[in-house]
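Propose amino acids for all 156 sites.
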C-alpha cells in the first residue's frame, strides 16, 4: 500500500492558555468593561454587528488593562520564544491595541484580520455555557476569493 503524506508547509497555529487567577482578573475586567460601556453607550463600529465595541483601552501603570497585560505576558513570551523560536526582546514586545466587545444573543463579529500584527488574541471575560463560538479562517488571501464550497470543516 502506498504511503500518503501531508506536508503542512504554512501552518497557522492557534494557541489556547488558561490565565492564572483568571476568576479575580475577570471580575476586575468585567467591572472595568461595563463601566466603559456605561460611559460610552454607542461605542465604536468595527467588525461588530449589533454588539458593543469599546474604544481602545488606556493602559496606565497598575490600572485594570495594565494588570491584564501583565497576567498574559508569560504566555506571549512562551509563544514568541518557545513556540515560534523568535528572538525575544522585551523592549520590542508590545500591544498596539486592546479593546472590549460585548455581544449578546443575535450579535456577532464579522470575519476580520489584524494587519501588521505578529500575534492577535481573543480573551473571554464572561461567557455563559454553550454561547456562541469563534471561527478562524485561513489567512491565505487568495483562498478567500477562489475556493470550492466547504462541505465540512476539517483540520485543513
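Proposal:
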Amino acid at each position: 500500500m502506498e504511503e500518503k503524506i501531508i506536508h503542512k508547509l504554512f501552518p497557522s497555529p492557534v494557541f489556547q492558555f488558561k490565565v492564572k487567577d483568571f476568576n479575580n482578573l475577570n471580575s476586575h475586567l468585567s467591572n472595568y468593561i461595563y463601566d466603559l460601556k456605561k460611559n460610552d453607550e454607542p461605542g465604536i463600529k468595527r467588525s461588530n454587528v449589533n454588539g458593543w465595541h469599546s474604544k481602545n483601552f488606556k493602559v496606565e501603570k497598575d490600572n485594570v488593562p495594565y494588570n491584564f497585560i501583565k497576567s498574559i505576558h508569560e504566555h506571549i513570551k512562551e509563544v514568541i520564544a518557545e513556540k515560534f523560536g523568535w528572538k525575544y526582546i522585551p523592549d520590542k514586545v508590545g500591544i498596539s491595541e486592546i479593546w472590549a466587545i460585548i455581544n449578546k444573543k443575535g450579535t456577532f463579529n464579522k470575519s476580520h484580520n489584524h494587519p501588521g500584527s505578529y500575534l492577535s488574541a481573543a480573551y473571554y471575560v464572561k461567557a455563559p455555557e454553550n454561547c456562541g463560538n469563534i471561527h478562524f479562517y485561513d489567512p491565505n488571501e487568495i483562498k478567500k476569493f477562489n475556493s470550492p464550497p466547504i462541505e465540512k470543516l476539517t483540520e485543513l
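The beta strands are 48-49, 52-53, 101-102, 108-109. Residues 85 and 146 are 33 Å apart (CA to CA).
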